[in-house]
User: Fold these one by one.
Assistant:
Number 1:
Amino acid sequence: MENKLLELKSKLCTAYFSIIHASLKTEIFIEELCVKSKVSIEDAQTVLPKLQKDYNLFFLTMLLLKLDQETLNEFKEEIYHDNVSTIYEKTLEGITLRFEKYLPFRPALKILSEGLDLRAKNFLGLLESNHFFMLGLLDLLESNNNQCTKILKSIALNLVFLKTTDIFLKEENSNIDSTIRYLDKYLHEIEDIGYMIGIFKI
């Protein structure tokens, strides 16, 4: 039963972002989702939120958690035999990989980020995904078991990511060159602050 629900959510999520990408709109009705995903309305109603307005945040959170888990799995394989790169370089690589995973969905993410109301609601989904991703990234990067230090680092990296996300959403071409330049800049800034106050370094 659980696998069926996960499969339904996955089909609907794929259909949702496909419709946004093609139509450039954020108000999508259940009938459109069902036609695109080939899921019956009855089945869709078992997994969708009851209110239409909840669709954006519902699917955004689902997509980001899925992409972040894929990123962490891929990053874990990439750094398994890497005994040369510094923690800083690995941190930059991990967050860069995350943006690369987001890149195919940038047009849809741009649309979902337009307007103050949309930004405020969808920001909550991004924060939830950030918390999950950054703690997972830190677990892969170091063996520090001090939860307080890990939380401080996670907050710092979340701030870096959110600042860089604005650059990511503003880029018009199909690459993320500017995004990575600013990511590197912001990471250096947060690293300098960490050294200065003696709490952490990356």
Number 2:
Amino acid sequence: MFVRIVVGLVAVAGFLAACGGDPRPSRDEIIASIQADPLTRDTPDEVAGCIADWYLRYAKPEDVTAFVNGQPDARTHEEIAPDEVAEGEMLDCPVRAPGKP
């Protein structure tokens, strides 16, 4: 009986490991999506990285996935951000004109 329980637990653990993990795209995938969009393709790595970090910290997994998949979202970052701290962090991402140091 004990062996059957252990085998069952190992099978369940294997299934959960295969299905587990963070369902959101990676930071690099978010950055690639930002820089692939014609409207934001000139975004410097530092700024794109800040935006990616913000999405990973504050956005819901489904929002991150939709963003990376290019699904349109009419909401503003204020509507996605859960509070004023999150909104402030997005607005604090470095902003530079393309081609400027």
Number 3:
Amino acid sequence: MGYTTRPRTEIIDFWPDDGPDHFWLTSSSQASIAAIIVMAKERWGQDIDLNDILIESQRIHTECVYYDLHDPNDWTDFIWIGRAQP
């Protein structure tokens, strides 16, 4: 989704996009490791090696970007799931 501007305002929000070698979950999605593996296999094929699945946590400024960086309500916790490159 990337950057968006709220209607009738100059407020900019951001939401990360999925890519061919990664996808994002919000921390509130409460996905189990088993569910993440199923999602990875659906995206990259059943034969993906579990050692090639990378998982990281990231906190991203998603609301009112470029304004009031210290407001904790404007940040979202994500789980980034990626595929290791050969």
Number 4:
Amino acid sequence: MKKILLVAAILVAVLAFWAIPKSQAGPAKPIRWKATVAGANLIGFGEFVGGVDHVNINNGSGTNDTACAPSGSTSYSYLELQVFTPSLQFSNMGGFSGVGDPDLAPSGLYGFPKITTAWPDCVGDFLTSALQPTAEYAHIDLRFTTCGCGNTKTDLMAMADGETLPVHMSLLFFTHNWYTLPNSSSTPTQYTFLNLLMNAHGWYSGVTAPFPDIYIKRVGNVWTAYVDTVFDNGAYQGNLLGYNSNDWPVTISDNILGQFATYVPSNAGKKGKTIWTTTYHYPCAKAPLKFQIAFTKY
């Protein structure tokens, strides 16, 4: 039962990043999208067409997304690309600086499949070692929303021709192999791979002036997201070393975030049954990230 509840909690957290676009609901003709990806750190192979070859491209809106804090705004809209087959390539990923959990980092309890380097360089090795998504990380979700960026306008579809808006970026790599039952001799144990989220709220950093470091610009029927960030938005730089919730800390710190869990057994259950205490951990890193993705409505 505990395993079922934990898996359910994880799925709830992940599903918060995925949504059925309101534009595709009901009898109205759905909006169709295609997208192209290019840049210094991320390249897309070919054109991505929503609903074709394991690609989803969604747009929609909502309220009360946790990523909107601490701006105080509750309404938001989004554009997202979901990819299920290997068709994205990371390159030139370097300059990593980061921290892990000081109690766990020496034991090397977190990492990625086939990757042996320590945090945070393991992130770059994982991203550039193969086309993404991989067999272990079978779903990539790249989402841009108006959450938490100080916008008075929150509807991306209502942007004027030539207008720009700062946006929040979340780039999620979720592994279906993340959870495995611990065994009685494991104290503590981490199973099995690291979830990864690149999380950043666009702002006018000065380095990328006169534009924000993450923004969307509309030109005609094309909404292009521009990313040129080092994850340094001053409103989102909280310390994560004491953060142990299963909810991604997207309202606390802009970072390249890892997520893993440790399980500590005790015999406090009825008739000596083992009870596992789960603690979540979030090693974090920063590195330059630069790319563009053009969403075309047709």
